[in-house]
Amino acid sequence: MKTAAKKRVDRKREPSRSRSDLRLEESRVAELLDIASQVFLANGFAGASMNEIARLSNSSKTTFYARFPTKEKLFIAVMERRMDTVLGEVTAPLPAQSPIDIALKEYGTRFLRFALSDDQIALFRIISMESVRFPELGERFYELGPKRGQTFLAGYLQEQIKLGHLLKDNPWTMAEHLVSLLSGGPVRWTILGLQTATRTREKQQEHIAGALKVFLRAYGTPAAGRV
Q1: Global pTM?
Q2: How far apart are CA 192 and CA 209, in angstroms?
Q3: How do residues 105-144 score in pLDDT, each as one tens digit?
Q4: What CATH number has the domain spanning 20-69?
Q5: What are the structural domain ranges in the chain?
């Protein structure tokens, strides 16, 4: 009885955790994930060491493994944080009243800036290699990245259909076609390391213009104009 009473007293004496403490924890986790991201992108999934990440982040192994018990869970956390950050830029609202070719050019520019960044190419290569062994990784990447981006684009295209700038068709399919045009051809080869031409802004804009010309020829109405 005395022991139980003592435990109750001890719990009462424990200070409540303030919001600032929680923010500090969140900041610490963000710092840890930044370090983990650097290690994964530099060494790949197989080459990254959990112990090395814990050491570089000045985390005790007990605390580190309590939060991230496996390398897979840590990598998913790294990927989730990165995708949340970059998708915020790619899916920033497009002005519905602007000419559709101008708005889609802006979207294409954002898309390629993201897709062809060194970190994103490295991340994509890791996911491509590991998703066969670790299917959840590929599924989470799709949910957090391509699906979210395509959902955003489909919403914009739906509004353009209502304005009479695009033919009445399935906006999800239309978005899928546009993303395929933007991410295909020389962009795909650049991601695979076979070409580097599309890393320049001039070549990227040339590629975007070609993709939009094909897209608007297929789906655009006279009200939309032409690129």
Answers
A1: 0.78
A2: 22
A3: 999 999 999 888 888 888 888 888 888 888 888 898 899 8
A4: 1.10.10
A5: 20-69, 79-222
